[in-house]
TrEMBL record:
InterPro entries: Peptidase_U57. Pfam families: Peptidase_U57. This is Sporulation peptidase YabG. It comes from the Bacteria.
């Protein structure tokens, strides 16, 4: 076994594929491939992953991405219909001339591989997004500098997380029992210092098993993980994209938006929030950006 190898853990029945980030004689540090999970294990507990298993997991990941695109396409059609209904129906030419202005996303990600996939998917979904790879521990300071420059409508703060293993069951309400939740919490607080209005700046924060309650109390609109379960790598993107294309006239239906994720209400939750999507009428002669 060496750094970069793909492995599973025997003690967990090989449920999740990890990449070895670092390895010593007695301990290995692992990052999930399709789940935003940090873990560690003794090298003896690791098992190499077959090419067939890797292919199967990649296929499953792509299917979930394709399904997300399909669902999102349906949402965009509904948004377009609502846009037409909000302009004068007696003026067909005018109804065709409005301009769609979805909310802008600033996506901070602790994993460069996930960030690349997310940026590709944002582009496919026509969501204006800026992505930055930054280690979870540096997110608060980086966000402090980026927010005034980027001026986003939506901030995604994600990467990897997990409960720290110890003797017995960890106290899930103790923030110190998480590998990165404290970093996410500090980043959310920085974002809320920049803009305290939860509708003008929507924050989506957390990763696998993150401290859901602490993130909401810090100021997040949506957070993981209410049941301390694993969340899919694309789940934060799905929520951000739905917010981006939900009208500012509408309150997001929490159960609806969360049920479109792979993890569901066990993996993500949130508070009542308005969308960030706006209509411009008449359509500008030059291109506009949020």
């Amino acid at each position: 076994m060496k750094q970069g190898d793909l492995v599973t853990r025997k003690s967990y029945g090989g449920d999740v594929i990890f990449r070895i980030e670092a390895i010593s004689r007695y301990k290995s540090w692992l990052r999930g491939i399709n789940y935003r999970l940090l873990a560690d294990a003794p090298p003896a507990d690791l098992e190499p992953v077959s090419s067939a298993r890797i292919y199967k997991d990649e296929e499953a990941f792509q299917r979930s991405a394709d399904e997300s695109i399909r669902r999102f396409g349906e949402t965009q059609k509904q948004t377009h219909k609502k846009g037409n209904s909000r302009v004068n129906p007696n003026k067909a030419r005018q109804a065709r001339s409005f301009f769609e202005l979805p909310g802008k996303v600033l996506h901070l990600d602790g994993d460069p591989r996930y960030l690349r996939k997310c940026m590709e998917l944002y582009k496919q979904l026509r969501v204006p997004a800026e992505g930055v790879h930054v280690h979870e521990s540096a997110m608060p300071s980086v966000l402090y500098k980026l927010l005034p420059q980027s001026q986003p409508d939506i901030v995604v703060i994600t990467g990897h997380d997990g409960l720290v293993k110890g003797q017995g069951q960890p106290d899930v309400m103790n923030l110190s029992n998480y590998k990165n939740s404290h970093n996410f919490v500090q980043a959310v607080k920085i974002a809320r210092q920049y803009d305290r209005n939860r509708d003008s700046l929507v924050i989506i924060a957390g990763a696998c098993q993150s401290h859901y309650e602490a993130l909401l109390l810090a100021g997040a609109n949506f957070a993981s993980s209410p049941s301390r379960v694993l969340i899919h790598a694309l789940d934060p993107l799905i929520v951000a994209s739905r917010v981006s294309f939900t009208s500012i006239d509408d309150t997001i239906q929490i159960s609806d938006i969360i049920h479109q994720t792979q993890s569901g209400l066990e993996g993500l939750g949130g508070i009542q929030t308005r969308g960030s999507f706006r209509l411009v009428l008449p359509k500008p002669q030059t291109h506009m950006e949020s």
